[in-house]
Amino acid sequence: MVRYAYDFRSGSRDMAGLLGGKGANLAEMSRLGLPVPPGFIVSTEACRAFLTTGEEPAGLSAEISRYLSALETTTGRLLGQPDDPLLVSVRSGARFSMPGMMETVLDIGLNDESVLGLAKVSGSERFAWDSYRRLVQMYGITVMGIDPALFDEAMALLKEARHASDDLRLDAGDLAWLVETYKRLIRDEAGRDFPQSPAEQLHEAVLAVFRSWNAERARLYRRREHIPDDLGTAVTVQRMVFGNLGPDSGSGVAFTRDPATGRPGLYGDYLPNAQGEDVVSGIRDAVPLAELEHLDPVSYRRLRDHAQTLERHYRDLCDIEFTIERGTLWMLQTRVGKRTAEAAFAIAAELVEEGLISADEGLARVSGDGLARLMFPRFDSAATGEPLAHGVPASPGAAVGAAVFDSAEAVRRAAAGEKVVLVREETTPDDLSGMVAAQAVLTGRGGKTSHAAVVARGMGKVCVCGAQDIAVDGEARRFTGRDGTVIEEGTVISVDGSAGVVYLGPVPLVASATMRYLESGEQADSVVCAVGRALDHADSVRRLEVRANADTPEDAARARRFGAQGIGLCRTEHMFLGERRKLVEDMILARTETGRDRALAALLPLQRKDFTGLLQTMDGLPVTIRLLDPPLHEFLPDRTALAVRIAAAEAAGEQPDAHDVELLKAVNRMHEENPMLGLRGVRLGLVVPGLVTMQVRAIAEAVVERTRAGGSPRAEIMVPLVGAVEELRLAREEVMRVLAEVGEETGVPVRCPVGTMIELPRAALTAGRIAEEAEFFSFGTNDLTQTTWGFSRDDVEAAFFSAYLDKGVFAASPFETLDREGVGRLVRIAVEEGRAARPDLETGVCGEHGGDPESIHFFHATNLDYVSCSPFRVPVARLESGRAAL
Ligand code: PEP
Ligand code: MG
Fold this sequence. Notes:
Strand order of the largest sheet: 12-22-21-14-15-16-17-13
Bound molecules: phosphoenolpyruvate, magnesium ion
CATH architecture of the largest domain: Alpha-Beta Barrel
Domain PEP-utilising enzyme C-terminal: 536-880
Low-confidence stretches: none
Enzyme class: transferase
EC number: 2.7.9.1
Distance between the termini: 40 Å
Pfam family, one: PEP-utilizers_C
Number of strands: 31
Family: Belongs to the PEP-utilizing enzyme family.
Structural class: alpha/beta
Number of domains: 5
CATH class of the largest domain: Alpha Beta
CATH topology of the largest domain: TIM Barrel
Largest sheet: 8 strands, mixed
Mean pLDDT: 92
């Protein structure tokens, strides 16, 4: 028989797949002897069975009853026992943390009778009725699907009637009245009563948590975080402990280190006389954890010791949820905590230094995405002016955008291409879509562990929270800054998540400390040193070489400073832009051979100069120069504009410009409906006489020049868009002829490897043949993705990719992250068959995927020799190539 439930003693941290992260870590804490309230876990397997069949798996109910009995024996009380009830919490917990995305029901076991028993044993009627009120509300929302706003309204009306600024001012009588109101609300809305049977409450709550796996916001979160949809959630059922039993009780969240900066030392928020949920929701402002040391020194010391035990045991930063019930500390949750990119690098470096983890483990704990974030610019402190607001620096970085006051508006404006900042009094899990759409999040309430802070940090989104000096009026869609300035919706503000400050208007940006370090080696702070160490270690373990895609000496120089080991792609067409466009136009339009030769001859010295500059900057390193690739019509004037100009002249009874008429004829001659599949790449070289000759001559002469100047030029010549070996053979013959010719002319032998791009499925499928003519392959995964899927790379992202992402056709755009299954398979085939034909074949990738962390891991596994990416991605690629090799 399948087993669906586990008690804490039979679980461990390695069982997160089955017990969820929360359950597995509770089990682990129990094993470590930390004070964990007893309970049991219903497995993800039960959830999966429920969600796939839509029915409760056979035997689940009996198993829950059996584990509940055991819990009742351990605690010496029955669930909902009238005179002294055992109460339990029912919480979701998936394998991967999804903060606030799924459901929780607390205080299960309370009913009209047991609430009186609880009042008696706790000595507080107010507490008992407040707990019952919470249960009816949570149950109504979560299990019975009632609109949360209805409960909030009833509460707000009561507070107004009692002139109570917060719920702590409501007394037992008020809360008992509220329970009745809530129950009536449930009856009216759901057509049935709030169940009085504790067993039914438990059972229904477990199923509701299962269902919440598929809630809209949970799905959205998973898509964003690339969490598979079929994992399901576990459910933890645990004896309730109460943080709202008076001033000697409370709840808090702690981190074993500061999750924003990585600095060591216990860190977090504490809320006296409150349940855990109140801390995370930011409903009341928490105090810094340090204050607990004065409020309850014994519990504080214990918490600090447990935190240390956990950090040593997990060998990483842990976050902890805890509750103090009348002076007794209980640990309710722990996990390896989310952190900012700064903190990830700083903590990894420190733990390596402390000898707690190896350098390899340290590298595994940082990421290329994090490094990319550290390379983003910061605000220029000299140009910030007076702040609009100060708050908690919850998630670092600099963001500028128009203030918006709800998620729908954030999504709408972002879809129209506007940058926005989501401003809320506090966020709830329902704000997720707005947070995704926004550049930054600003809240008026809540600490570093509030929902806004935790979620923003996880997403790498800039966040300032708990800005108490602003007044947010969501209804009126505006907020008032500390100096009284009123910010209406749409006003541009700048949010500094590192300093916790907000400014009016756009603040100019400057290079970050990490960027300055990468550019110049300046070691400004400990985070930068940590980045340096991680990169050094990555360099020492990686097998993949990292090159850059660069077309100018400036880009090449930057790439080299960033650690590039050569140029993997120089797109020569980029050298024909600007004023040289006219020369290209002349070449295309030339009616005679002499005319074309003249145009090509004018281009030659310019190209030679380009190549000389590149070879000089990258002296001693390979420079892969690709022959001209894009369709020629891209260099000609716009067809419609020309036609309109001619028609306008004719309509005015004038003679159209003769040059325009000639141009239009040529443009019409060259027009293609589908230029990306048209006259480009090697095809161009084979049909436009003299083009390859000119380019190769320019390369060869640059090599000679550099050689004579005492350099070590290492040019490689790459032929684009080859689909058949015959194409490459023809192009290569011409290349070799020109190289030999220049060698003879100058007396300097020119040796350049000749290779090809693999960017058409046919090239990949006939790679064995193509390798006969190619000394290297460079995968053009942009075109290879386009031609494998039949997606136009210029159009699809706007046209339907967002619908495809929503529908789950793919989890990420295949133009960003390599589609391993399809495009990846072609890469694999080409590498294998190419190497079989030519064992010393060099292989690399120069499509955008060369700088994408996930794709880099694939290229490592596929045994490529190098990845090539834009200069700014070079450090990211070094780091991820190292991580891939671990
Ligand atoms: C490619 O297709 O992946 C490539 C690098 O070439 P381009 O983007 O210039 O077409
Ligand atoms: Mg291409």
